[in-house]
Design brief:
Spore Coat Polysaccharide Biosynthesis Protein SpsA, Chain A, 60s Ribosomal Protein L30, Chain: A, 2 domains, seven-stranded mixed sheet, 13 helices, elongated, binds magnesium ion
Length: 394
């Protein structure tokens, strides 16, 4: 067995996205704007520990990967892309066969574990050098039960004696090849390479790393929606609006009719607070402004409730794959006192946007009788809103 030579990695991504409910291979899904497979390959490359990679993909995915690597940049460590086999075990074997013959240590890694780190890679390699194998593992958090065929628990192993294994799994290249060939010849199958090695050579070294807890295999839809370790940066928008106070109009702020001797003048119901909010939302998504969406010149909007305009703007925002996540509104107004209506305003906005009330803030302030708001000539409102772009969130 060679102890000097390349450190090579087989990345297995030949599965389908069935469990995650995706139509195509889940490794093409994006996390933070970059595909899972590219994220995984970049992490392997960035570790500086790997000399070459053989990527195993389903043959149907070759074209899609080709286009993707042109868009996101090809990984310079890739030596070959090979088609997967009928089982994971066969896929790994076709990958192993393609590694350079001067490979000393072979790592096998799931394409759907993009959060692999340098520490994990270093530690499995160190264990191969010392113990002949290194398989990343984590302590088990849940209590595990052994069940019978009717689904009854029949025994409870001590949790301290259990480990959950992940990938990378690393071995001397000659040995893991030998184990695989032996398995094929003897019709032996196993769910991972550690189990094959165990059957052929005995004990496998389980490698610990502080990073193992985040080295998650992305499987369920929610795994793709957020990633705790690479935060999704929200888009932020601001909005500002002013309407004149005049007699003979209703005063409506955030959809709440407030008893007062004057109301705001405007083409719609002149809800200055919702206009500022709508502009903030459109601003966060770089989708123009309220005047562009609902022109004053259009009679359809005459006297219309601004709640309807807000909902329509939000519908278009959703259509453009953005999602509003929070909003803050400040209403600048000398009279009347708005404090009694704030909670109702927050509820109205939250309902219109289908968001929890806790994500919506409405505040009111005076200007110490200064300026047009202070003199009671008009009311102004300012707003900020945050949005996420769903393509990035997924
Ligand atoms: Mg306005």
């Amino acid at each position: 067995m060679k102890s000097h030579g390349k450190t090579s990695c087989v990345v297995v991504a030949a599965g389908r996205g069935a469990r995650a409910g995706f139509e195509s291979n889940k490794v093409f899904q994006k996390i933070n704007g970059v595909s899972v497979i590219t994220t995984t390959l970049r992490a392997l490359e960035a570790s500086g520990e790997i000399d070459e990679i053989v990527l195993v993909l389903s043959k149907d995915d070759f074209n899609q990967y080709d286009e993707l690597s042109k868009r996101e940049g090809a990984c310079r460590l890739i030596k070959a892309i090979v088609p997967g086999g009928s089982t994971r075990q066969m896929s790994v074997l076709s990958g192993l066969k393609k590694l350079s013959k001067d490979t000393a240590i072979a790592l096998i890694h799931d394409g759907a574990r993009p959060y692999i780190t340098k520490d994990i890679i270093e530690n499995v390699i160190k264990d191969v050098r010392q113990f002949g194998s290194g398989v990343i593992s984590t302590p088990v958090i849940d209590t595990i039960k052994v069940i019978d065929e009717d689904g009854f628990a029949v025994s409870t192993p001590e949790r301290d004696t259990l480990r959950a294994v992940q990938t990378p799994q690393a071995f001397w290249y000659d040995q893991i090849m030998e184990a695989h060939v032996w398995a094929v010849e003897n019709g032996i199958s196993a769910t991972d390479d550690a189990a094959l090695y165990e059957k052929k050579f005995g004990k496998v070294k389980l490698t610990a790393s502080e990073d193992a807890s985040r080295n998650k295999k992305l499987t369920l839809p929610e795994d793709f929606m957020s990633s705790k370790y690479i935060p999704i940066v929200p888009r932020i928008g601001t909005g500002y609006d002013v309407h004149r106070l005049t007699e003979g109009r209703k005063l409506i702020l955030c959809g709440v009719e407030i008893p007062f001797e004057k109301g705001l003048l405007g083409h719609s119901d002149a809800d200055v607070a919702l206009h500022a909010l709508t502009d903030a939302m459109l601003g966060a998504c770089a989708m123009g402004d309220i005047g562009k969406l609902f022109p004053d010149s259009d009679d359809r909007y005459k006297g219309i409730s601004s709640i309807i305009l807000l909902k329509e703007a939000n519908r278009r925002i959703r259509e453009n794959k953005f999602r509003i996540t929070s909003a803050d509104i400040t209403i600048v107004c000398q009279r009347p006192k708005l404090a009694p209506y704030i909670d109702m305003m927050r509820e109205n906005v939250a309902n219109a946007l289908s968001l929890p009330v806790s994500h919506i803030s409405v505040k009111a302030t005076t200007t110490e009788k200064l300026g047009f708001e202070g003199e009671g000539l008009g009311i102004s409102a300012q707003s900020t809103a945050t949005a996420i772009y769903e393509e990035e969130a997924l």
